[in-house]
Design a protein that fits this description.
Blueprint (H helix, E strand, L loop, with lengths): L7 E6 L19 H11 L3 E7 L39 E5 L16 H7 L4 E7 L1 H14 L3 E10 L7 H12 L2 E3 L2
Parallel strand pairs: 1-2, 1-4, 2-3, 4-5, 5-6
Helix pairs in contact: 3-4
Length: 185
């Protein structure tokens, strides 16, 4: 693990119960990212940010509404809670996304003002892990790079959905080609 500085933020993407084993949109081995992320949290960054899907019950992404996914991370339900073993610091910034029923947000930086908030406090580098590698983590990494942040993808701290075989490898290649550093271990 590389050391983080005051200009770095740890961005934890959607480590919520519905994305972990037993959840409505469980990612295989999704809960295995929690101890890895806890080690990164313990290192201390200039800031820790945790994004979460926070959907209304009739969100457009749900199968029942003609979307792609089963209902998940519905506001104020246990499935939307962060995994109980994730040790978020008390001062972690929580970013809710997917809060409107008529548009989706895969990236933690999509219409959340997160990039502006990070830049205002001098953050220039993001260390990103969470769920899922090939969906929300991918979108967050690509948006962060477009916003001018240096990005390190914490590969051991993320797991893919792999809706189509190889989605994870394509996502990693795309993020790397866009300028993300891949951190293993």
């Amino acid at each position: 693990m590389n050391g983080m500085t005051a200009q770095d933020a740890l961005l934890i993407v959607d480590v919520q119960n519905d994305f972990c084993p037993g959840g409505s949109l469980a990612i295989p081995d999704g809960d295995s990212v929690v101890p890895v992320l806890n080690r990164w949290i313990a290192q201390g960054a200039g800031m820790t940010v945790a994004s979460r899907d926070w959907h209304p019950p009739d969100h457009m992404s749900f199968l029942q509404q003609g979307g792609t996914w089963p209902a998940h991370c519905i506001q104020n339900t246990p499935g939307a809670d962060f995994h109980r073993d994730l040790h978020l610091p008390g001062d972690a910034l929580i970013i809710s996304k997917g809060t409107h029923n008529d548009f989706d947000q895969y990236s933690a930086l999509d219409r959340t003002e997160l990039a502006t908030r990070l830049k205002q406090v001098g953050i220039s580098r993001l260390w990103i892990g969470g769920l899922a590698l090939d969906v929300c983590v991918r979108a967050t990494v690509l948006d962060a790079l477009q916003q001018g942040f240096k990005v390190d993808l914490l590969l051991d701290a993320t797991r893919p959905i792999n809706a189509k075989p190889g989605d994870d490898q394509r996502a990693i290649a795309e993020m790397q080609a866009a300028g993300a550093a891949i951190e293993r271990g």
